[in-house]
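C-alpha cells for chain A. Residues wanted.
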C-alpha cells in the first residue's frame, strides 16, 4: 500500500475535551482493506505528545492503482492531558495489512487554552 495524504483545516482555539474536524483526502494504491485513523497532537519538535481518540475506519472496497479516496471528514476530541499552547497535528492512517503513513503533518493549527 502506498499513500499520499492531504489534510485541510484552519487555525482554531480549543479547550481540552472539545471536538474538531479535519477533512482528509488521500491517494491510495493497494488492495481492498480497512483503514483506521489516529491523530497525534505534539508541541514542537521535542514537546510532549498526546494521542486523540482513534476514529472508526473506512473500507477501501476495490484494488486501486493510485486512486483518490475522499474527502472524508473525521471528528476528533482534544485529549484531557494535552498541554496549553500551539499544537502540531500528525495523522496516522493504518491499513489492515499493517502498513501506514506517518508523514501527514499540520503545524501550529490548534491552540489549546485553559
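Reply:
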Amino acid at each position: 500500500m502506498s499513500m499520499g495524504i492531504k489534510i485541510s483545516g484552519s487555525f482554531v482555539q480549543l479547550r481540552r475535551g472539545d471536538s474538531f474536524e479535519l477533512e482528509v483526502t488521500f491517494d491510495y494504491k493497494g488492495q481492498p482493506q480497512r483503514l483506521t485513523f489516529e491523530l497525534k497532537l505534539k508541541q514542537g519538535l521535542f514537546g510532549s505528545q498526546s494521542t486523540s481518540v482513534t476514529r472508526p475506519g473506512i473500507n477501501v472496497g476495490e484494488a486501486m492503482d493510485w486512486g483518490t479516496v475522499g474527502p472524508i471528514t473525521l471528528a476528533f476530541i482534544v485529549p484531557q492531558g494535552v498541554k496549553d499552547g500551539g499544537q502540531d497535528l500528525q495523522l496516522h492512517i493504518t491499513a489492515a495489512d499493517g502498513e501506514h503513513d506517518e508523514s501527514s503533518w499540520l503545524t501550529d493549527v490548534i491552540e489549546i487554552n485553559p
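The domain at 2-112 is CATH 2.60.40.2550 (Immunoglobulin-like). DSSP finds no helices and nine strands in the chain.
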